[in-house]
Design brief:
The protein is globular, with a radius of gyration of 20 Å. The N terminus is likely disordered. The protein has three helices and twelve strands. The protein has one domain: Lipoprotein localisation LolA/LolB/LppX (outer membrane lipoprotein receptor (LolB), chain A, Clam). The relative contact order is 0.22. The termini are far apart. With 202 residues, the protein is an alpha+beta fold. The chain is 15% helix and 45% strand. Pfam families: LolA (PF03548). Keywords: Lipoprotein, Signal.
């Protein structure tokens, strides 16, 4: 009897892990849209983990991000991997303070912010054309993976969000084997960002 009691007590003390349940990617995308709809801008602290195909070691950095509708994104990483980046739709501007080096890159139009954010402009009732998607739900956390069918640089990107639709993590897998994972903390929405908050040169 005592053995049975201890067995029951042990089972009760073991944390239960919620199993991931498949969910409709359309529902997941709509949930994300709802969380994004009320945001005109946001700021957040981030942790970025970058795994390059040619390196075994991950590059881990911390920093901040800013976003403003319709298509402005800023990211600044602090030393030892210091950099600043501004993305205006499909125009990428990079600056590396240590090297005092600046690079400007034009991305394909279909990989720009306007195209992807356009998916969240109105209620989602079907998956966009030319993409495959899958989603699952674990507790109050949903994970949505979107894979463009067109053979561009991006193989897939995975968005993890809460039940409120707020983004918690973004993972970008590239076709060359590189992977970037960005975890968001302390997100603040509608803080009144302006154009001056999106510059690579101070």
């Amino acid at each position: 009897m005592r053995t049975f009691f201890y067995a029951v007590l042990l089972i009760a003390l073991v944390p239960l892990t919620a199993a991931a349940a498949p969910m409709s990617p359309v529902v997941a995308l709509e949930q994300l849209r709802k969380g994004f709809a009320g945001m005109q801008d946001f700021t957040a602290e981030i942790t970025q983990e970058k795994q390059l195909a040619v390196m075994k070691r991950k590059l881990v950095s911390t920093g901040t991000v800013r976003f403003k509708k319709p298509d402005l994104f800023f990211m600044e990483l602090v030393p030892p991997h210091a950099s600043r980046m501004v993305l205006r739709d499909s125009s990428l501007d990079l600056y590396f303070p240590k090297e005092k080096s600046r690079q400007q890159i034009a991305l394909p139009a279909d990989e720009g912010l306007k195209r992807w954010l356009g998916l969240l402009a109105k209620p989602v009732t079907a998956l966009p054309e030319a993409v495959d998607a899958k989603a699952d739900l674990t507790g109050d956390t949903q994970t949505l993976t979107i894979s463009p069918r067109k053979k561009g640089q991006v193989h897939s990107f995975t968005l993890t969000s809460g039940s409120d639709g707020r983004l918690r993590k973004l993972v970008i897998d590239e076709r060359n084997g590189n992977r970037t994972a960005i975890t968001f903390q302390k997100m603040r929405a509608n803080v009144g960002l302006s154009e001056k908050d999106f510059k690579v040169l101070e």
